[in-house]
């Protein structure tokens, strides 16, 4: 099992980060992908895969953090990101994307410009994009209709849209990841979407420390909860959880170009 989206560097893990990682391996995980949220985290994150190849990282600027960054520095930050990606060590570009609630502090034009920069870097460095989209799917769809596609692909992180939206992203070639909400009692749209996604484009995540699955909802999530999310996904798909766990692991390894070591290594 590979957790394809876990903010293990978040401050909520400061008290017990090592124990969280130990519990993840004990739960059967073989890999954790940590997506950066802002420039100050890029270089510290790059040190993690050097210590343990089971932990890999993506580098990008989360749209929710754009209001905290001066707009005049966007170009400089993208140049810095380019330089770091050139050195290797990252397996993805992101987390990046569009965020509706952040519009008052980061207008759509700015969010699109920064996302366009991330996409260009993904194409240049041959890396997949970890895509965030919250309450701006129409804008993202229009963007993707016009934007050149990164050969390594796009992963729709913690997908929460319905089946009709999913069909657009499927047609474009996206991969999809699901988090804790697939286990929540009131979940509807993500379950409908899950049923239409091609088997070879499906992976799983915890989005820790947020979106904890049942029975931990309302608490801090952690990567060791991934088996609960996979169990929820398997129930929706009507297949054995072991089969789904193996397939999503293989899909993640392929998407991230075998960066994660296999259990036998």
Low-confidence residue ranges: none
Order of helices and strands: EHEHHEHEHEHEHEHEHH
Report how far apart the termini are. Answer: 15 Å
Give the helix/strand class: alpha/beta
CATH class: Alpha Beta
The CATH H-level superfamily is: Metal-dependent hydrolases
Name the beta content range. 5-15%
* Sequence of strands across the biggest β-sheet: 1-2-3-4-5-6-7-8
Tally of individual domains: 1
Q: What's the helical proportion of residues?
A: 25-40%
- CATH topology-level name: TIM Barrel
Tell me the overall shape: globular
Largest sheet: 8 strands, parallel
**Cα-atom Rg, whole angstroms?**
17 Å
The CATH architecture is Alpha-Beta Barrel
Protein name: TatD family deoxyribonuclease
Binding site for a divalent metal cation 1: 5, 7, 95, 207
Binding site for a divalent metal cation 2: 132, 157
Family: Belongs to the metallo-dependent hydrolases superfamily. TatD-type hydrolase family.
Give a short overview.
This protein is of the alpha/beta class. The protein has helices at residues 17-26, 42-46, 48-51, 74-86, 108-125, 137-146, 163-172, 189-194, 226-237, 241-255; strands at 2-3, 31-35, 55-59, 92-99, 129-134, 154-156, 175-178, 202-204.
């Amino acid at each position: 099992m590979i957790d394809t989206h876990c903010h293990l560097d978040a401050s909520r893990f400061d008290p017990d980060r090592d124990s969280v990682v130990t519990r993840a391996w004990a739960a059967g995980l073989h890999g954790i992908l940590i997506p950066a949220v802002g420039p100050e985290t890029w270089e510290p994150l790059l040190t993690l895969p050097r210590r343990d190849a089971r932990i890999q990282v993506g580098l990008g600027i989360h749209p929710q953090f754009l209001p905290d960054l001066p707009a005049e520095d966007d170009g400089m930050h993208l140049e810095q990101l380019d330089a770091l990606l050139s050195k290797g060590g990252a397996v993805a570009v992101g987390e990046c994307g569009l965020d509706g609630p952040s519009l008052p502090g980061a207008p759509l034009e700015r969010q699109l410009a920064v996302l366009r920069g991330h996409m260009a870097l993904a194409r240049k460095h041959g890396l997949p994009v970890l895509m965030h989209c919250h309450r701006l799917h129409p804008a993202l769809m229009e963007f993707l209709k016009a934007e050149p596609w990164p050969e390594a692909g796009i992963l729709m992180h913690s997908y929460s849209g319905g089946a009709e939206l999913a069909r657009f992203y499927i047609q474009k070639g996206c991969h999809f990841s699901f988090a804790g909400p697939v286990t929540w009692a009131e979940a509807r749209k993500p379950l409908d979407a899950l049923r239409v996604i091609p088997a070879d484009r499906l992976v799983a995540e915890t989005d820790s420390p947020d979106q904890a699955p049942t029975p931990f909802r309302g608490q801090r999530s952690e990567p060791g909860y991934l088996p609960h999310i996979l169990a929820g996904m398997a129930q929706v798909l009507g297949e054995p959880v072991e089969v789904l766990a193996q397939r999503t692991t293989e899909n993640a390894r392929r998407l991230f170009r075998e960066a994660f070591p296999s259990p036998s290594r």
